[in-house]
Structure formats: structure tokens, C-alpha cells
Task: structure prediction
Amino acid sequence: MTRIRVLAGTRKGAFVLTSDGSRAKWEVSGPHFGGWEIYHLKGSPADPDRIYASQNTGWFGQLIQRSDDGGATWQAVGNEFSYATDPGTHLWYDGTPRPWEFKRVWHLEPSLTDPDVAYAGIEDAALFKTSDGGATWTELTGLRTHSSAPGWQPGAGGLCLHTIILDPVHAGRMFTAISAAGTFRSDDDGATWFPVNRGLHSAGTLPEDEPEVGFCVHHVEMHPSRPDTLFMQKHWDVMRSDDAGETWREISGDLPTDFGFPIGVHAHEPDTIYVVPITSDSLHFPPDGRLRVYRSRSGGNEWEPLTRGLPQENCYVNVYRDAMAVDSLEECGVYFGTTGGQVYASADAGDTWEAIVRDLPAVLSVEVQTLS
Amino acid sequence: MTTGRSVRPAGDKSPPGPEVTVRVILPAHLKNLARVDGEVTLHLGGERDAITRQAVLDALESAYPVLRGTIRDHGSGQRRAFIRFYACEQDLSNEAPDVPLPAAVIAGTEPFLIVGAMAGG
Result:
């Protein structure tokens, strides 16, 4: 029987929500690791019961937890993230050089084929890999040692590597995104990297309009059936690339605001995409206090607001970059979590929404597993 | 409830001396992580002047590897910024790590406290 498992990372622990394929009734377990920030947890596509979680506090630092039974029990695995070479410096907010320093793991991306392999995106921005189920982590140095790295500068949330995409078609190809450096591509399994930011604009935030790096990319998504097409929610602007990041064009179109954090892609319709517009960079809540997901069925530019079941007054939550995901049931389900502690789900591709849990701590990330 | 582990200070190759029992109190989050209730007792071999903060933390991490990196930095061994070390009503946080612990801690009459500093909300 098909089941859905939603993995929610929050400011004070992890929660696992499960339902049958009707997605009408949800069981909530948690908090796991109560009191700890869970930036992200994600299951292995190769073994859905294998889940990796990033656990962190300012007091006790970073841990990585692993479950081999779908989130019922967990064991701490390796938590040593040491830069493999002399870290050197990046730019601090005030423009002065600052040594690279590990702070936390933002994103965990399990391999598409091997449950013991996973990638970790960290702050200060670097990419790590485990090949032994999380026991040890090794830096893929080609990204952090790119010639542009000494000029990378943190966004407000830190110099974080928050997006990792593994191309399911082109062997060896992967993408990462860093705030506020931009998007990078590797065609050799992460050994070497190059920026793919042409077409992104930085008017008002950088002295040059189209520099090689320096962009506050918030999130990037790919549909697995069309791996050359990428969708990006940038600090401002919703963008699209159809050539694996070589060039980007804006698809904000008729959105009420093109500031936001997450972006999602329908599981079966590669041109159906979702964003949650946020008022502005200084007002991190929905315009007019109305929580609206916007859907484009044309790959961008033409957007429709989705409001049924979402609060349409006095709503001032935010939705973080990793807090939107989809399931792969025939009628695609869409999920997102808010800083107000709600996880909203739509079992009809966004037409109607329901809170499947309320009053959690602020939601940092949402991932969805479709289990058969 | 007390949980005990026998560990010699890392790198101690001297003949085993009289065993020293050190009582350690962890903050709640680290108790959960190590899956212990109450105090941890560590039975350390070696001379009494080798019973330092570093020796106790080495022994603690050897007995409970999950705590590696949560009290002090993996690479540098530096105390994490929001961790404090107390014993005998003294703040030992800024003592050198190789200074012997107070006699009462080495005698086992007073615990060595690892504390999460008050910070945040």
C-alpha cells in the first residue's frame, strides 16, 4: 500500500508525519532530538528507510543522525567536518578577509543509487561527502578552492551551501547553490566546479550588474525528467535555465512580488512550478497578510494564486528555502512548512490546502517520501 | 543513577597507578545524546596530577564517542563558546586544559560539571 512520509526539520527538533495514499489523516511522531535545530533531514532514494538528519545547536555544535528504519530510531554518526586544505579566507560582511570556519550543515543530499553515500552542504560554504553511511565525511575541495571563493560573501543567513542537486541523467553532473555566491556546476562528480550564473542580475546589491559570482540564490530545483532545466528562486527574481545553468532568464512574470525562498516542481509536469511570494527582503512575510502559493503551469511568467485552505488574513509567517517538497502520487501532493509551525499539504497539486500539523516550532525544512 | 566507565587518560603509557574516580555531570542535551541518566563516573588510571580537564574530557569522549565535538572543537580541542566547566564552586572554564583538577574532584567527593551557558531564548 502506498504511504507518504513527511520529514519536517524545525527550530526545536524533527517530526515525522505519515499517512496512507489518501493523505487525509496524518500521524505525527516527534520531536526527535527535541531542543535541537534540525536544519534538514532527507531519505535515501535507494533505501527510503535510510534517513540522514542534520542536528545542531549553538551550545553543542553539529551532529549527524541516521535512521535505518524510517525515522523510528536514530543513531549519531560522524560529525567531523574538517576542511581538507588550508581554508584560506572569504569576505566578511564588512568586506574584510575572514578565515573559513565550519558552523553547521544546512543540507543533506543522499545519493540517488547508494544509501551509504550522501553529500552535505555546510556553512561556511563547502561540500562534503560520505561513502560509509555518515561515519566519516570528506570535503570535495574543488568547490571551496574555486578561484572566485576568496571573494564570496555571506548572505544574512551566513555563507551557506544550501542546495545540492544530483543529475539523474548526465553521469557526474551536480549543482550546488551558495548564499551569496551563486550557483555552481560540476561535470565530474564534484571534483571541479564552475559558476553558472550568466543572466542573473544583481542591480542594487552589487556594483556590477552581471558579475561571475555574488548572487544570493535562495533555492534551485530540477525535474528529474528534464535535467537541463533548472528553476531558481533568487533573493529577488524567479529564474529559469534550459541549458544546465549556462544561461538564465527571468520568469517572475505577473507574480505580486518575486522575492521568496522556496521553489518547487510538480512531480509529473516539469513545467508546473510553485513559489511562495514574500513581501520583500526587509518584510519576510506574505503580502497583505495573505498566505498564497503561486503556481505556473507554463514554466513561469504566468502565475495563479492558490489560496483555498490557506490563511487569507493576518498571516505573517515565512517559508524557508528547503521547506517545500512534492510527493509522486498520481495526483501530485505539494507540501510546505512555515515559521509559524504549520505544515500545509495539498493532495491536488495545489488547488486546495490543509494544515496537516499546526503549532510545531518554526519549520526549517520539509522533505517528502512516497513509499510503496 | 550513575553510569561508570573505566578509561585511562589518552596517551598514558605509564604503569597503572591507583584508579581515580571522577564524577561528571553533563547538561541535559548531552545526557540524552550519551543515553545516560544522572552522573557519569569515569575511572581513570594514572597519577593524580594527570587528572586534568583534558584527561577527563578524553576519557569521557572515549567512553561516549557521540560526545566528540559537542564539548570542544574536533580539530583545535578548544572549548565550545557556550560550554562552561565548574567544580567546587569555581569556574574552571578558562583554566589551561592540562591543569590538575581540584583535589575534591580527584577524590570523587565533588563532581566536575559541564554546563551549557545561559544564552539565547
